[in-house]
Structure formats: structure tokens, C-alpha cells
Design goal:
heterodimer, A: 193 residues, alpha+beta, seven-stranded mixed β-sheet, 31% helix, B: 368 residues, three-stranded antiparallel β-sheet, 9 strands, 14% strand, elongated
Chain lengths: 193, 368
């Protein structure tokens, strides 16, 4: 494997990424980051979730699964964060079983299905959808399973492996180690019930 | 049998040879009948000469030949008799010699044939034996593995039940201590599971590791475990947790993970300290509490461990799932998509991709 070594520290570079629109003119992605919350870019994704009243359920689930440190680390990641309302839509039995200690592996798999490597802004998603066959784009999560994205009017919709759909309600919350997109449903990987 | 037939052929030739020689010696077509008579062949010298005269006499008289001439011929016949006899004997001996030679050759060929057949049979037997050995070896190996796994689960079950769970002290010393969830899974070994009749449903990224074969079926439950099921008995033989196949959150660090194994590019961020160890397994870097020896967090998730972009190199095709540009913001001015090149990020590296062929052209490491 040919590797061009670039003597740069990604972590420090990301930490220095305070403006949220730094250096993406070449791709035109800076327009997307106009929507970003540039002032919050010093916080990590984990800290942003902990501070958000809309994502407390997701935050608790991440903590139970031991994934908080992942989202506090160097990343960068793109996280599709279900809102509390999305968690409330899950049947109570299923929700309580998810947080049981013996189901921790299942919970880790489920939550990892919401995490994508790299920084993918809403504009990046839109461009990929427009370029993709049939108006769809595939996005690989860190579990190795893909999400399918498409447009519904102005909104971007995510189809999961279990046939469910989630809509991006609040895109491009840029953080020091990636980007958060709020979604209105919990994504289920294939094989999950 | 063949030998007897050959000898009989030689004897017949020996009997026929004088008669044939007599017919040739006279040169007369009328002697054909005598030549065929085996009884005359017993007295080739006397009987043959007299008969020759009678016939020839009549014929030559009719043509006006003198008796002297006939007499001369008779004398010549008589003088050539012993020579003819010698010639006949030589011919017979030659014929016998030929027959013997043929017989020797036939015997030799027969020996060769027999040897070849024996060798072929031996070779076949060796191959069969090898195959049997291989089958025996693989069956023995599978049986040993099964026994080992059963013992492991049995021991884990005993320990977990005996200790009432997985206390940190025991966990630090023993990898077989299982939390209650896994213990319940282990108790399914040797039993039927309701989803054993379902179609093959192992998630794509694990199919290379768990694929249905002649003896085993693999079925996935929705809780992150793959069940190995005996095709004949439909009983569960083994259970494998999928995510973090060996390292599991809340469980003790298993044996074999004593050595620091974090990928090079991430080592500066996750060095072992007095409070925490860091270990890589199956697409994630886990944090281990050095006091309790329990895995208590996942600090990084990498795509390379699950067969994603991070596991690929130059010349490999871009996997599915990378339709969207995902380069970190700080690098977008240097690595922006163009008509000639795309850039995608995974596991601390940027991958340059040819948009036409979708093959990776270069890998640029950022974390050094």
C-alpha cells in the first residue's frame, strides 16, 4: 500500500477547527456549513449531546453502551442522533430491554449504526443523492452496514437495514471531532427486531 | 492357459513344417493334397520320394521327356534329401525358437502388466488412505474443537454460577467468568433455537467468517450473536458474539490481549497508562480499566476491522457506502473532489479514488 505521509496531526487540526467552514471551498461545502453552529465547534460530539436537552435519551444510551469516549475522541465522525421523541416512539418493552446489561452488545451495535466515519455535511449528502442512481446514496456506518439516503422534498431521508425511515430534522451541528445531524427516528440495522 | 496354447501352436507347427517343406520341394500343384495329409509327414523321406515319381512320371511321359532325365531328377532328389532334412530341421528349430522368444516376450509383458496393475492398485490405495486420513484428521480436529468449546462454556457456566456473576477480583484472574447475559446464551448450547429454521441471516460483514457449510449452519439472532447449528441434529453447537468478537464491554480482558495492539496511527492518542490499557479488536479500540481489568469503554471505531475502506489499499475498489464526500473540514481545501479524483476519509487516512474506475489511487495518512 502506497501511503503518502502527511506530517499533520488530525486531532490538533480538528481542535483548531473553530470556524466550522475552514478550508472546504474546493468542494463548495462551505455553503453547507453556513448552517453550522460555528460557535460550538470547540466542543466534542459527546459534550454537545450531553448539553442538548433533545438528545438526553441518546446520550444515556451511549453512556450505557460505553460509547461516550468514542464521541469524545479524535474522530472525526458523523453522528445521526435520534431525538428523545424518536426514542419515545420505541415500544417500552423494547426500550427497557435495550438498556439491560445483558443486551449491551446489541445496544453497542444499534448505536454504532448511527455513526459514520468522517465528516459528512448535509450538502455532501445532498450532492451524493443527486449524483447517485435513482436519487439514492449509500453511506457506510462504522459497523460495516450501510444506510440508504434519498430526498423527500427538501428533507433528506435515511432508510435503515430493517426497513425503517428517519428524517434529518436538524442538520450540520459541527463539532470539534465531526458533525451531528438530529433525526426523528431510531435507525435499526438489518436483522434487528 | 495362454502358455499351453502357445506350446500347442509350436507343436502343430513342428508337425506341419515337414509336410510344407515337402510340398515346396516338389514344386507341383498336384501335391497339395499330400501336403495337407499329416500321416505322410511322419515318413517324409521315403514315401515322399516314391509318390513324387509316380505323378511326375506320367506327366513327363505325356510331354515326351526321357526316362533318364527322370532318373537324374530322382537321384538329385535322393542326394538333396539329407540337406532338405537339415533345412527342415533348422526351419523347425527356428520356428520353435521364434515361438519360445514370443512366449518369453508374452510372459515378460504379462509380468509387466501384473506389476503395473499392482502398482496402480497400490497408488489408488494410497490415495484412498490419504483421503481417509485427511477426513479422520479433520473430523478429529472438529471434535477436539467442539469438546474444547463445550468445556470452555461448561467451565464458564460453573464459575459464573459458583461465583454469583462476575466480580472484579475473579474477573481479573479468569477469562471464563461470564456475565449473566452471556451465561444465558451459553446455556442454549445443545438445545434447539426457534430461529434455526430461518433463512441464512448473518450480517454481510460477518459472512466471510460465518458461512453455511456441509456440517454447520449459522444463524443470527437480533441481539448480536451468531449461533452455530448442527445441520443434522438442529442443535446449537456454539455461540459467537458479533460486535467485538473477543473484547466485550463490561467483561474482563481475555487472555491473549496482554500485548498492546493499537494500530500505529492511533498509538499517540491511546498509550497504555497506569489507569487504563487500550486494546484493538474487530474495528474498535477498547479501553480497559487497569484496576479491575474490565473493558469499560470504546474510544475509537475503525472501519478497517469490519472490512470497510480502512482495510483497503491502492488498487482496491472503493467499497459501497462512500458515495458522499466525507473528508474532515480542515483538509477539504487540499482534498476536494474533482473530475479526475475523489477523496474519501476512513480510519485516519484520506483515500484518493479514480471516479471512472472507482479504484483507490493513493492513501494519505493524516494521523502521523
Amino acid at each position: 500500500m502506497m501511503r503518502k505521509m502527511v506530517p499533520l496531526c488530525l486531532a490538533s487540526a480538528l481542535a483548531a477547527c473553530t470556524s466550522g467552514d475552514g478550508g472546504n471551498q474546493g468542494n463548495g461545502a462551505n455553503e453547507a456549513s453556513g448552517n453550522a453552529q460555528a460557535g460550538q465547534a470547540r466542543t466534542s460530539i459527546a459534550e454537545a449531546l450531553a448539553a442538548s436537552i433533545d438528545h438526553s435519551s441518546f446520550q444515556q444510551a451511549l453512556q450505557a453502551a460505553g460509547l461516550t469516549d468514542t464521541l469524545r475522541g479524535i474522530g472525526p465522525y458523523t453522528v445521526f442522533a435520534p431525538t428523545n421523541a424518536a426514542f419515545d416512539a420505541i415500544p417500552a418493552d423494547a426500550r427497557s430491554s435495550l438498556t439491560a446489561p445483558e443486551q449491551r452488545d446489541r445496544l453497542v451495535t444499534l448505536l454504532s449504526y448511527h455513526i459514520v466515519p468522517g465528516t459528512v455535511t448535509a450538502e455532501d449528502l445532498g450532492r451524493a443523492i443527486d449524483r447517485g442512481q435513482g436519487g439514492r446514496a449509500q453511506l457506510a456506518t462504522v459497523t460495516g452496514d450501510n444506510l440508504t439516503l434519498s430526498r423527500e422534498g427538501q428533507a433528506i431521508v435515511i432508510a435503515d437495514g430493517a426497513g425503517g425511515r428517519a428524517r434529518i430534522t436538524h442538520p450540520d451541528q459541527l463539532q470539534s471531532n465531526g458533525v451531528l445531524h438530529s433525526i426523528d427516528a431510531v435507525l435499526m440495522p438489518g436483522g434487528a427486531q | 492357459m495362454r502358455k499351453l496354447m502357445l506350446l500347442a501352436g509350436v507343436a502343430a507347427f513342428a508337425v506341419a513344417a515337414p509336410a510344407l517343406a515337402k510340398g515346396q520341394g516338389h514344386g507341383g500343384g498336384g501335391h497339395g493334397g499330400h501336403g495337407g495329409n499329416g500321416g505322410h509327414a511322419a515318413q517324409p523321406h521315403h514315401g515322399g520320394g516314391g509318390q513324387g515319381h509316380g505323378v511326375h512320371g506320367g506327366s513327363h511321359a505325356a510331354r515326351g521327356h526321357g526316362p533318364q532325365r527322370h532318373g537324374g531328377q530322382a537321384n538329385a532328389h535322393r542326394q538333396r534329401g539329407p540337406q532338405r532334412l537339415d533345412a527342415r530341421q533348422r526351419r523347425v528349430e527356428r520356428a520353435i525358437e521364434h515361438e519360445r522368444r514370443d512366449l518369453r516376450q508374452a510372459r515378460q509383458e504379462q509380468r509387466f502388466d501384473t506389476r503395473r496393475r499392482v502398482e496402480q492398485r497400490l497408488a489408488r490405495d494410497i490415495v484412498r488412505e490419504d483421503r481417509r486420513d485427511w477426513r479422520r484428521w479433520s473430523e478429529r480436529r472438529l471434535a477436539l474443537r467442539d469438546r474444547f468449546e463445550e468445556r470452555r462454556f461448561e467451565r464458564g457456566r460453573r464459575l459464573a454460577i459458583g461465583s454469583g456473576g462476575c466480580p472484579p477480583g475473579l474477573a481479573r484472574q479468569n477469562r471464563f467468568c461470564m456475565p449473566p447475559g452471556q451465561l444465558r446464551k451459553a446455556q442454549l448450547i445443545g438445545r434447539h433455537v426457534p430461529f434455526s429454521n430461518l433463512a441464512y441471516n448473518v450480517p454481510d460483514r460477518f459472512r466471510y467468517r460465518f458461512s453455511d457449510g456441509g456440517r454447520w449452519l449459522y444463524r443470527y439472532d437480533d441481539a448480536g450473536f451468531v449461533y452455530r447449528i448442527d445441520r443434522r441434529s438442529s442443535l446449537v453447537n456454539s455461540i459467537y458474539p458479533l460486535f467485538g468478537n473477543s473484547l466485550t464491554m463490561g467483561e474482563p480482558l481475555p487472555l491473549g490481549y496482554e500485548v498492546y495492539n493499537v494500530p500505529l496511527s492511533y498509538r499517540r492518542f491511546y498509550p497504555d497508562t497506569s489507569n487504563y490499557f487500550y486494546r484493538y479488536d474487530d474495528g474498535a479500540i477498547y479501553r480497559v480499566n487497569s484496576q479491575t481489568n474490565l473493558v469499560d469503554g470504546i474510544v475509537a471505531m475503525l472501519t478497517g476491522g469490519v472490512g470497510g475502506l480502512g482495510s483497503l489499499g491502492v488498487g482496491d475498489p472503493l467499497p459501497t457506502g462512500y458515495d458522499a464526500y466525507n473528508v474532515p473540514l480542515d483538509y477539504r481545501d487540499r482534498y476536494a473532489d474533482t473530475g479526475d479524483s475523489w477523496y474519501r476519509y476512513a480510519d485516519g487516512s484520506i483515500y484518493q479514488v479514480d471516479p471512472q474506475t472507482r479504484l483507490i489511487q493513493a492513501v494519505i495518512s493524516l494521523l502521523v
